[in-house]
């Protein structure tokens, strides 16, 4: 379950973060505050990082099982856990990259 959450939901969390942050820009400009924008990025980054940690823990657990077994199922699970970890990490990097303009640019520009 942790593999699929990181593999499917983590990229969706990054896209949702972009949508929510874009929707909050008007509110941030009207109230002259970016605190809610920072909070939304932080929440989505925490969720994405948590899913990546769960996939990484599964990857570590399946490393022992795949090394001691010649069957295909443990090797596939180990591979999927590695891909899920990479996917969640890439989604987290994307969230951080989308967070940087919030630190540098006022929401009232343009």
Task: Please supply descriptive tags for the structure shown above.
single chain, mainly alpha, 3 helices, 88% helix
Q: What is the multimeric organization of the chains shown? A: single chain
Low-confidence stretches: none
The level of helicity is: over 70%
* Proportion of strand residues: under 5%
Estimate the global geometry from the Cα principal axes. Answer: rod-shaped
**Total number of strands:** 0
Give the termini distance in whole angstroms.
Answer: 44 Å
- Taken in chain order, the helices and strands follow as HHH
Average pLDDT figure: 91
Task: Report on the architecture of this protein.
The chain has 110 residues and is mainly alpha-helical. Helix content is 88%, strand content 0%. The protein is built from three helices and no strands. Helix 1 runs antiparallel to helix 2 (35-68) and helix 2 (35-68) runs antiparallel to helix 3. The longest helix is centred in the middle third of the chain and has 34 residues, at 35-68. The radius of gyration is 18 Å and the shape is rod-shaped. It starts with a helix and ends in a 6-residue tail after the last helix. The mean pLDDT is 91.
